Structures are given as C-alpha cells and as structure tokens.
Amino acid sequence: MKTTFKARILISFITVIAVLGSSMGVLGFYIIRRDILEKTRAEVRQGLASARMEYGSKIAKIRNTIDLVSPGDDLGLIAKKGRLDYLYYVPASERDMATSEIVLKAFQGQRLGGTRVMGPEEIKAIGPDFYENIRMEVKPTPKAAPSDRKDLDSALAIEYAMPVKGELWGEDGVLYGGR
Phi, psi (5° rounding) for residue 138? Predict the structure, then answer.
C-alpha cells in the first residue's frame, strides 16, 4: 500500500509533535520535581532548624536563670527578673509530690530541659490569675468534631530542672522553673 505525500507529511508532523510533547512533559516533570519540591523541602528544613534553635535558646535562658539561684534566694523574685512563670525547689523528701517528668529525671542526677503538659491543678498552684489567663473557652465551629469540652485548662510549658546538693540547700533536691 502506497501512502500519499499528504499522509506522509501528516505522519511526520504527528511524530514531531509527539516527540516534542513527550520531551516537554518529561522536562516539565523534572523541573517541577527538582525546583518546586526541593525548594519547598529546603524551606521546611530551614524553618524547622530555626524553630529548634529558638526552642533551644528558650531552654538555655531558663537554664541560665536557674544557674544563678543560690540557697536562701527569693525564688519568686528571681523568677520575675528571669521572666519565668514559675521557679521552685523540691527537696528529695517531697519527691513523690513532683508531677513533672523533667523534675523526676532531675532527681536521677540529670540536668535537662524540655516541653511538657501542665495540668489545671498545677497551673492553679502557680496562681489563680495565671490560671484564668491560660484557660480558653472552646467555641463550636461548623466543621469541628462534636466535643463535650467547654474549656481548655492545660498548657504546654518549657521547663528546665537541675539537681542540687544537700550541703548547700540543706537537703538534696531539684530546682526547676519554666514558662
């Protein structure tokens, strides 16, 4: 079967269009994958690194304030000057009353900082005004899942704790504070 000149030109054009179209598709896929996705991943990595650095600096500021505490100091005044929401000393004899995982680790002789959830009782112990500032009313929204909760009364705290020796403090214990 003989093909006409018009048919050969049409087949040639379709072949050229298919080859160019597929190569542009591959190139487009590569550009999207390389440029857009890689740039997005790099921005996310940079954002996470910045957040880690900021988080680390907040823990370091709390550690620096706690490092300045000496036996007999007014912990409330130091907390206020160090911009901490709370600063406490827990003697080893009251270890069982500690609710913070960070404080319990510090009783094992480890200095450490981190984030933890503070319950409403612990927040109320800091002060009733503090509790009222933290508490948030839950407002129903059209797309929210049904809930019986009327308010949120727990909070995330950035905390640092360090063990202290009895020869200075009268009894071994833990000094801890946070925001």
Answer: -90, 120
Ordered DSSP codes for the chain: -PPPHHHHHHHHHHHHHHHHHHHHHHHHHHHIIIIIIHHHHHHHHHHHHHHHHHHHHHHHHHHHHHHT--TT--HHHHHHHTT-SEEEEEEGGGGGG---HHHHHHTTT--EEEEEEEPHHHHHHH-HHHHHHH-EE----TTSPP----EE--EEEEEEEEEE-HHHHSS-EEEEEE-
pTM: 0.72
**Residues 45-85: pLDDT tens digits?**
999 999 999 999 999 999 999 999 988 889 989 999 999 99
